[in-house]
Amino acid sequence: MRILVIEDDASAAAFLVKGLREAGHAVDHSLDGATGLNMAEAGGYDAFVIDRMLPELDGLSLLQKRRDAGDETPALFLSALGEVDDRVAGLQAGGDDYLVKPYAFSELLARVEALGRRRAPSNVTTKFTVGDLEMDILSRTVRRAGKKIDLQPREFRLLEYLMRHAGNVVTRTMLLENVWEYHFDPQTNVIDVHISRLRSKIDKDFDKPLLRTVRGAGYKLSDED
């Protein structure tokens, strides 16, 4: 599943995102409601996990906006507000489930995966293609022009993130938060090293480069000239 987590507590979000990824899910994360809304509007998610109390735009208003726009993506609210009226408010705003903090991760995982099962399988994207580069999430395979490419786990995650955002510029901050799970810049060249390794595997022996550096902005995976 591809899951969007919108949680402003950085440490709680890091724990949640790490657990969901270890369970095999692709996870994007936002620290505030306004950014989370923009990410949700981009679509492609199988479930939302939304904290109720968020800066810039609260969780209830965020989900209500998506429901008003016709977005039926299943959503689980997380909140320290656990009274009956609070839970009812979450459901009335369009939430499909409501979990009170503190929670056991195993219960959250079970609830999120149950929400995912409500969606038709056709809504779940497991294969990505950029030019002649192909990735299959389920079989964990990558091929270019039919040739199998062996990637290390971090390289696979990096390429998956780039393919999910193909055609768009991906910043270093986005990569640090979503591939390395850092919510700060460790001031290392870890991204440059992995990008270089990935480029050598998916571009070096082929006529057309797909992974480009956008000076001063980040990186972009694209088949466009």
Structure in words:
- This protein is an alpha/beta fold.
- The chain folds into two domains: 2-123, Response regulator (Rossmann fold); 127-221, Arc Repressor Mutant, subunit A (Orthogonal Bundle).
- The protein contains eight helices and eleven strands.
- The protein has helices at 10-22, 33-42, 59-68, 84-92, 105-117, 153-164, 172-178, 190-202; strands at 2-6, 26-30, 47-51, 75-79, 97-100, 127-130, 133-136, 141-144, 147-149, 211-214, 218-221.
- Helix 4 links the parallel strand 4 (75-79) and strand 5 (97-100).
- The radius of gyration is 18 Å and the shape is elongated.
Question: How do the helices and strands line up, and which of them pair or pack?
Answer:
Layout: E1 2-6, H1 10-22, E2 26-30, H2 33-42, E3 47-51, H3 59-68, E4 75-79, H4 84-92, E5 97-100, H5 105-117, E6 127-130, E7 133-136, E8 141-144, E9 147-149, H6 153-164, H7 172-178, H8 190-202, E10 211-214, E11 218-221
Parallel strand pairs: 1-2, 1-3, 3-4, 4-5
Antiparallel strand pairs: 6-7, 7-8, 8-9, 10-11
Helix pairs in contact: 2-3, 6-8
Summary tags:
4-stranded antiparallel beta sheet; alpha/beta; 225 residues; Arc Repressor Mutant, subunit A; 8 helices; 2 domains; 5-stranded parallel beta sheet; Rossmann fold
Question: What's the CATH first level of the largest domain?
Answer: Alpha Beta
Ends apart, CA distance between termini:
32 Å
Helix content: 25-40%
Order of helices and strands: EHEHEHEHEHEEEEHHHEE
Low-confidence segments, given as residue ranges, are none
State the secondary-structure class. Answer: alpha/beta
